[in-house]
Design goal:
seven-stranded mixed β-sheet, binds flavin-adenine dinucleotide, alpha/beta
């Protein structure tokens, strides 16, 4: 088997992976840094798809404390407060770095200050943006900076499994998707930054290259996932019809933030019946309200609801939401002057690998950052805190790995049995009797949407558990025609589906375990939020191939539920 040795291996080239590479190189230019990515660097992942923008407290009337409190309240008090604090405290530094060191241009006010717009669930308009295509600006500038530095890139390579050396990480078994050959990358430190991505739901927003690979690898390696039941649904996914990948893609939050209405099949504006903030309520509330409206029989023509912008003036909508207007026009809809059908769509995973403020995981030599991690957002993520999370923690991971990684000494020796197990899992399906993968994928979408989706019950989760277990067995038995290993997309589908089903089982187990409703997790049989002061988060591990859930008390290290904002601010300021 081909082997590559490197000092730092970064899995994924989104905001987290690219920032980590730049910071690691800056911290220690002598280090050999390798980015391995499932697609093409700069062209894949979700950071590129960021539309709305980046939350950061810049205005003198805003404050880091206020951003922190919005994040904690939005997260249903489940957040790791140290991680959340680091997010909001570092975001101003990171946004300046993006502008002044990396060359991003964000929209500005006439007086030259950075323009910040409204995003739902926040007490201040603090979302920095570049029109409604902010992610392209960020990823293009980051990719350019990585290209001009001495960073090795291995593209169209997917990570298959983490490979141990006794009780630490020795490297990663990769698959060169172009040749179909394995590659063992040995490293002194590895960053998991594959970006989660809830693409197991019928309607979803993330890029097609994401199939929870990092989370599945972490589970197989025995690592705990925190808050994995917390899957965020964006309320306004485009409903463009069946069989098109445009269905599910996001129409961004700023549309509602700037005054867009949601109306049902009878033309009624319904959000104020559910929440005093109307369309500006948080994503979970808006998504649930839409589902309730649909269930009560008030759906739009194709089973969703409508978003209406025309009352704001078509010219203004075209000017402020150019990308959204064009996206809808591509599908034959006029967002600026008419109404467009939407449906909630799976968008983001708040849960992920347990990690600490220095981005270390419980497995020595493995670090994690971005959407692969859990704890920053608690039970719900504020729109605009996602790209802040990936860039803030990607940078920290790069600093830490750069500072801690010494070139001297031998690389950890990969365990032979771990190598064989990883190789066998990925390669044995080749040449075995093929199964009906498209049917299995559709089945997974349906199970997760119907039974582990926006509204959950013990009954639906029990049903889903049995169906997911059965599906996992079928996938394990499912072979793939081996006419050619080169760019074998059926094989990739099979590997994706295996990982998605494993993580779905973890989501289902944690959702069944959590018997209250919070943030993105809503149990119809337990609709109340339990006492915030005794909040617990979940941790799921695999034990003999079964997801096992444990509950851990949240540490209120900075603020406690039930105190006034003034008291909270005083507590935060005191440290
Ligand atoms: C449509 C859309 C709009 C969004 N808008 C906003 C917004 O306005 N504001 C906001 O804050 N957040 C937004 N988000 C969320 C935001 O994109 C994410 O929070 C964040 O960018 C994730 O960064 P990341 O680096 O963790 O992952 P990503 O940017 O998704 O990168 C993951 C990388 O890992 C690679 N990868 C995956 N699997 C493997 C594997 N097995 N081996 C090797 N590489 C692998 C992928 O190819 C990719 O390069 C949006 C998301 C979507 C989908």
């Amino acid at each position: 088997m081909q082997t590559l040795a490197t000092d730092i291996l970064i899995l994924g080239a989104g905001g987290a992976g690219l920032f980590a590479a730049l910071h690691a190189k800056k911290a220690n230019p002598e280090l050999d840094v390798t980015i391995a990515v499932k697609g093409l660097l700069g062209k894949c992942g979700c950071t590129r798809m960021v539309q709305g923008g980046y939350n950061v407290a810049l205005s003198p009337e805003d404050s880091v404390e206020r951003h922190f409190m919005d994040t904690i309240e939005g997260g249903g008090w489940l957040n790791d407060q140290e991680l959340a604090w680091l997010l909001v405290e570092t975001a101003p530094k990171r946004i300046r770095e993006l502008e002044t060191e990396l060359g991003c241009f964000f929209d500005r006010n006439p007086d030259g200050t950075v323009h910040q717009k409204a995003f739902a669930g926040q007490t201040f308009d603090r979302t920095v943006h570049k029109g409604d295509l902010t992610g392209i600006e960020i990823i293009n500038r980051l990719a350019e900076q990585v290209w001009r530095r001495d960073v090795r890139r291995i593209e169209d390579h997917r990570a298959l499994d983490l490979i141990f050396s006794a009780d630490e990480l020795a490297g990663v078994l990769m698959l060169d998707m172009r040749s179909g050959e394995p590659l063992l990358v040995r490293a002194r430190a590895t960053l998991l930054a594959t970006g989660g991505g809830p693409t197991m739901y019928r309607y979803h927003t993330p890029s097609g290259d994401k199939s929870c690979d990092g989370l599945a690898m972490a589970l197989r390696a025995g690592l705990p996932l925190r808050d994995i039941e917390m899957v965020q649904f964006h309320p306004t996914g485009l409903l463009a019809g069946e069989g098109t990948r445009m269905t599910g893609t996001v129409l961004e939050e700023g549309l509602r933030g700037s005054g867009g209405y949601l109306t049902d099949g009878q033309g009624k504006r319904f959000m104020f019946d559910y929440d005093a903030r109307g369309e500006r309520a948080t994503r979970d509330i808006v998504s649930r309200s839409i589902m309730d409206r649909i269930r009560k029989g008030y759906a739009s023509a194709h089973g969703g609801v409508y978003i209406e912008m025309g009352h704001l003036g078509p010219e203004r909508v075209r000017r402020e939401f150019k990308g959204m207007v064009e996206r809808c026009a591509d599908c034959g809809f006029d967002l600026a002057a008419s109404r467009v059908e939407v449906i909630p769509t799976a968008h983001y995973m708040m849960g992920g690998v347990v990690f600490s403020p220095d981005c270390a995981t419980p497995l020595p030599r493995l670090y994690a950052a971005g959407e692969d991690t859990g704890g920053v957002h608690g039970a719900n993520r504020l729109g605009g805190n996602g790209v802040a999370n990936s860039t803030v923690f990607g940078g920290i991971a790069g600093d830490v790995m750069g500072a801690r990684t010494m070139r001297a000494g031998a690389l950890p020796e990969p365990d032979k049995r771990a190598m064989e197990a990883a190789f066998e899992r990925a390669f044995t399906p080749l040449g075995r009797k093929p199964g009906n993968l498209p049917e299995m994928r559709e089945r997974l979408y349906r199970i997760m949407w119907d039974d582990v989706g926006i509204l959950r019950t013990a009954e639906s989760l029990t049903r889903a558990k049995a169906a997911l277990d059965a599906l996992a067995h079928e996938i394990a038995d499912c072979g793939v025609a081996a006419d050619s290993r080169r760019y074998n997309l059926t094989w990739m589908d099979r590997l994706n589906l295996e990982n998605l089903t494993l993580v779905s089982r973890a989501i289902c187990a944690a959702a069944d375990f959590r018997r209250d409703s919070r943030g993105a997790h809503f149990r119809e049989d337990y609709p109340q939020t339990s006492d915030l002061g005794t909040s617990c988060y979940t941790e799921v591990r695999l034990a003999e191939d079964q997801p096992v859930v444990a509950s851990r008390a949240v540490t209120f290290s900075r603020v406690r539920p039930g105190k006034s904002l003034l008291q909270q601010e005083a507590a935060i300021a005191a440290g």
